[in-house]
Amino acid sequence: MKNIVKKIILLALISLSFASLAENTLASATTHKPSIIALSPHIVEMLYDIGAGEQIIGTTTFADYPEQAKEIPIVGNYLRLQIEKFITLQPDYIIAWKSGNPSDDITRLEQLGFKIIYSQPNNFEDIAKEMREFGQLTGHEQKANAQAEKLLNQLNMIKAQYQNKPPITVFYELWSKPLTTIAKGSWPQQFLNICQANNPFEQVDIAYPQVNIEKVLQAPIQLIIQPLSANQSAKVGFNWQDWPIIPAVKNEQIIQPNADSMHRMTMRSLTALSKLCADIDKSRAFYQANISDKAFE
Between 177 and 110, whose confidence is greater? Predict the structure, then answer.
C-alpha cells in the first residue's frame, strides 16, 4: 500500500513539473521581444521613446542619443553597411531609413532573407504614425500610442500658439560651405511655417538649394537661423559678421539651435520646434519694439 501511495505522489509531482515547464515556455513565447538593428539616429531615438531601446542590437554611426545609445554596436554608416555583422547578429527586424541608407546594401540584406521595415517621416504627423507602427512591431504598443498622442497634442498646441503671429523674414543656414538653405519639401521648412517665419527661398524647386550671398542680400533677412551639431566639429558656420548690411546681422539677430534636435525626426524635434518658435518670437518682438519697418526694407 505504501508503494502505491509513493507512486501516486511521484506521478503527481511529475505532472506538476510538466505543467510548470509548459507554463514557463508559453510565458517565454508571449513575452519575447524582437531584436532590432536600427539604421539611423532618428530610428534609435524613436525606439527609445516608445520603450524599445533595449531591443536594439546594432545601429549606425552618430546614433548618440539617449546616452545608452552610445553603447550599441555599430554596423555601418550612411555610406556603407557591414553585411557580415548583420549575419552575426541575426536581428529579427532591420529598420532602415529609406532615403538615408545605401540602397545596394539594403537590397543585399533583403536578398539574404532579413526582414526590412522602412522609416521615412516627412513631417511631425509621420513621427506619430511610425511610433505607433514600431510599437506594434516591438511589443510596446501601449506606450507607443501614448507617446504618439502626446506628440500630436503638443504639436497642435504649438500651432495654435503661433498661427496668428505676424510673419518675420529669416534665413535658414543648413550648411556653410557651400552656403546651403532649405525650401519646400525639406524637413525644417515645416518648422518655419509653424513659427510663422517667411523663408525667401521656400519656393525653390530643390529642397536643399545652394545659394550665394548675393541672393541672400536681396531679401530683408531679419533673423538668421544657424543650427549647429555636436557631431559637426569640423564645421565652421558662415561668417555673417562680414555682412552688416543684413538687418539680422546689424541687429544681432542670429540664433544657433541644436541641429541634432531639429533635424532628427523624433519627440526631441518637437521640443526643438517649441524653442525655435519662442526664439523667433523674441526676434519678432525686438523689431516690433525697437525698429521701424523701413529699417530693414
Answer: 110
